């Protein structure tokens, strides 16, 4: 079970507007800046992001079929703002891992409770 669509809608309308200005500065958070596949419009999506040896990993709490994930995969790159720094990320790869190994231990347990097993890996340029 990934998080329900109603929660995703609430987060887009309410939570993202509140956390958006701070997400690029707080540990464990970031903002992915990407362009729409059809519109070409720039979008800024707040999310939970964690560093890896090669770049970053994002738990796909709404699954891999969300628009922002499709946009990043189609473009092959995006910008990521985290802890006050802007990174160019590329080579986006979907990863399915039931053990949730790429995530920090505390986050891993929470994601297990909600059934998240899909992740997006982003290579730092």
From TrEMBL:
GO terms for molecular function: oxidoreductase activity. It holds the Pfam family F420H2_quin_red. Gene3D superfamilies: Electron Transport, Fmn-binding Protein, Chain A. NCBIfam families: hi_GC_TIGR00026 (TIGR00026). This is Nitroreductase family deazaflavin-dependent oxidoreductase. It comes from Amycolatopsis carbonis.
